[in-house]
Design a protein that fits this description.
Elements (H helix, E strand, L loop, with lengths): L1 H20 L9 H36 L3 H4 L1 H24 L1 H19 L5 H29 L5 H30 L3 H4 L2 H14 L14 H19 L4 H23 L7 H6 L1 H17 L1 H13 L4 H28 L2 H19 L8 H27 L7 H30 L10 H28 L4
Helix pairs in contact: 2-6, 2-7, 2-9, 2-14, 4-5, 4-6, 4-10, 4-18, 5-6, 5-9, 6-18, 7-15, 7-17, 10-11, 13-17, 13-18, 13-19, 14-15, 14-19, 15-17, 16-17, 16-19, 18-19
Length: about 475
C-alpha cells in the first residue's frame, strides 16, 4: 500500500515539474529552466576544473606508475590544453551556425566518454590521447556555456549568473587538489578519471531536460574550414616549437608557426564568413583589451598547481592529500569572491573591478618570488589565498565586461574567443613550464639530486607570472568604458 502511495506521490511531483518546465515552449524565459540549465553549465565548469587540478596532483603517481621521464610528464597537462585551444574557436563558430545547445551536448558527451576511457589506459600514449579527447570535448562545452548563460539571463542578472558559473569552476579547483589527492592516495591515480563520470551524466540529463530552445543563426552561414585548419596547424606547430626549445629544430618550428598564423590572419580578412572577424575585433576596444587581459592573467595562474604540486610533494615531502589541502586555499577564495564580483559587475564598472584583481595578484606573486627549499608552507598558503581573491575579482568582471560589449547574434563566437584567451593563457603558461623543465631537468627523473634545479624552475616561473599580471593590469585599466 505504501509503495503505491509513494509511486503516486513521485508521479505527481514529476507531472508538476513537467508543467513548470513546459510553461514556455521556447524555454528561454521560464525561471526553472534557466536555473536548471545554469546548474548543468556550472556543474560542467566544476567537473572540468576538478578533473584538471586532480590530474595535476596525481602526476607524480602517474609518472612513478608508468615510468615517465620529466619531459614527458609535462605533456600530461599540455595535451589537454593543446587540443582544447585548437578546438575552441571552431566550436564557437559551429555553435553559431548549428546551435549552441547541440554543440554543448555533443562536447559534454565526448568529455564524458574520454574521461571514462582514462580509467582503462596503461601507458603514456593512451593517456595523452585521452587528455586530447577531453580537451576537444571541454572546448565544445565551454565555447557554448557562457553564450547559453548570456542567452538565458537578461542584463540585470547576467553578472550574477556568470559569477555562479565561475564560482563552481573555482570550487572545482579548490576541491580538485584535495579530492584528487585523496582519490590518488586511497584508490590509485586511475580513480581520478572514474569518479567524475556520474556527475557528467547528470549534467547531460539536466541540460536535455531544461533547454528546449535552440539558438543559432537564422540565415545560412558556411563554416570556414580553411581558417580552422590554418589555425589548428599554426597553434600546434607553435606549441611544439616552444616545447622543444632550446633545440635547433625548435627555431624551424617557430618560423613555420609564425608563417601559418600570418596566413591565418590574412585568410580571415578575406573570407566572406570568417571564423574570427579581426576588423570588428579591432574596433571593439572593450572586448579586445578584455581578451588580452584574460590571456595574461591565465598565463600567470595556470602553472601554479603543477609547479607547487611538484614543490610540495618532492621538496616538502607532503602526501598527495596534504598537497591538495594546501593548494585548495587559492580556489576556496576564488569560489567565495567570484559571485560577489559578479554582483559588483552588475552595479559598477566591471573593468575597474577586474583591474583591482590584477593588482592584488601582482602583490601575491611578489610575495612568492623568493621561494626556496626553506620557504614555510604557511607563506605559500597565504599567498595562494591572496591570488584567489585577485583572480575571483578579475575573472567574473572581465567576462561580464567583454560579453556585454558584443552583438547577441555572435555570442557563441565571442564566448569561444573569451574561453580561447583563457586557454591560450593556460597554454602559454604551460609552454613556459615546458621550456624551463627542459632546460633545467631535461630527460632526468625528479630525484633529490635535482631538487635545486626544480626550485630554479619554480622561481623563474613565478617571476614570469608576476610580469604577466602587470601586463594584464595595464590592458584592463586601459580598456574603453561604456
Amino acid at each position: 500500500m505504501w509503495l503505491r502511495h509513494a509511486w503516486q506521490y513521485l508521479k505527481q511531483r514529476f507531472l508538476d515539474l513537467s508543467i513548470l518546465l513546459n510553461t514556455n515552449p521556447t524555454g528561454d524565459k521560464t525561471p526553472l529552466r534557466r536555473w536548471l540549465a545554469l546548474l548543468s553549465i556550472s556543474l560542467v565548469s566544476f567537473l572540468n576544473s576538478l578533473l584538471n587540478s586532480a590530474t595535476n596532483v596525481a602526476i607524480p603517481e602517474i609518472a612513478n606508475d608508468l615510468g615517465i621521464v620529466a619531459a614527458a610528464v609535462s605533456w600530461i597537462p599540455a595535451a589537454f590544453l593543446l587540443s582544447n585551444t585548437v578546438m575552441l574557436q571552431p566550436a564557437g563558430r559551429l555553435a553559431d551556425i548549428y546551435g549552441r545547445k547541440r554543440i554543448y551536448i555533443t562536447g559534454l558527451s565526448l568529455l564524458t566518454g574520454a574521461t571514462l576511457g582514462g580509467y582503462l589506459i596503461n601507458n603514456i600514449g593512451w593517456l595523452l590521447l585521452v587528455r586530447s579527447l577531453q580537451g576537444i570535448g571541454a572546448a565544445m562545452a565551454f565555447a557554448t556555456g557562457m553564450a547559453l548563460v548570456m542567452s538565458l539571463f537578461d542584463k540585470n542578472n547576467r553578472g550574477v549568473a556568470l559569477g555562479i558559473s565561475s564560482a563552481f569552476m573555482y570550487l572545482g579547483l579548490s576541491c580538485g587538489p584535495l579530492i584528487g589527492g585523496w582519490w590518488t592516495q586511497e584508490f590509485g591515480w586511475r580513480s581520478v578519471f572514474l569518479f567524475p563520470v556520474p556527475l557528467m551524466v547528470l549534467a547531460l540529463f539536466l541540460v536535455a531536460l531544461s533547454i528546449k530552445a535552440e539558438w543559432k543563426s537564422s540565415e545560412f552561414q558556411s563554416f570556414d574550414w580553411a581558417g580552422s585548419l590554418l589555425f589548428a596547424a599554426g597553434i600546434s606547430t607553435l606549441f611544439l616549437g616552444v616545447s622543444d626549445l632550446p633545440s635547433p629544430k625548435a627555431l624551424l618550428l617557430l618560423i613555420v608557426a609564425l608563417t601559418l598564423m600570418i596566413l591565418f590572419v590574412r585568410q580571415q580578412s578575406q573570407a566572406a564568413q570568417p571564423m574570427v572577424n579581426f576588423k570588428a575585433l579591432g574596433k571593439n576596444k572593450i572586448f579586445s583589451r578584455s581578451l588580452l587581459a584574460s590571456t595574461c592573467i591565465f598565463s600567470s595562474n595556470y602553472p601554479l598547481v603543477f609547479l607547487f604540486s611538484l614543490f610540495l610533494q618532492y621538496i616538502k615531502g607532503l602526501s598527495p592529500f596534504e598537497t591538495g589541502q594546501v593548494m585548495m586555499a587559492q580556489a576556496i577564495m576564488m569560489a567565495i569572491v567570484a559571485p560577489l564580483s559578479g554582483r559588483l559587475a552588475d552595479q559598477y564598472n566591471p573593468g575597474k573591478i577586474a583591474t583591482v584583481g590584477c593588482l592584488i595578484m601582482t602583490i601575491a606573486f611578489m610575495s612568492l618570488l623568493g621561494v626556496d627549499l626553506q620557504t614555510p608552507i604557511w607563506l605559500i598558503t597565504a599567498s595562494l589565498m591572496l591570488l584567489g581573491i585577485g583572480l575571483g575579482l578579475f575573472s567574473t568582471s572581465n567576462n561580464s565586461s567583454a560579453l556585454s560589449s558584443i552583438d547577441i547574434t555572435r555570442l557563441s563566437s565571442g564566448s569561444a574567443l573569451l574561453s580561447l584567451s583563457r586557454v591560450a593563457g593556460n597554454l602559454l603558461g604551460t609552454a613556459m613550464v615546458l621550456v624551463l623543465m627542459s632546460i633545467n631537468l631535461g630527460d632526468n627523473q625528479i630525484t633529490p639530486i635535482y631538487y635545486s634545479n626544480l626550485v630554479t624552475v619554480i622561481q623563474w616561473g613565478l617571476g614570469l607570472s608576476c610580469c604577466y599580471t602587470l601586463a594584464a593590469g595595464y590592458f584592463s585599466f586601459t580598456r574603453a568604458t561604456k
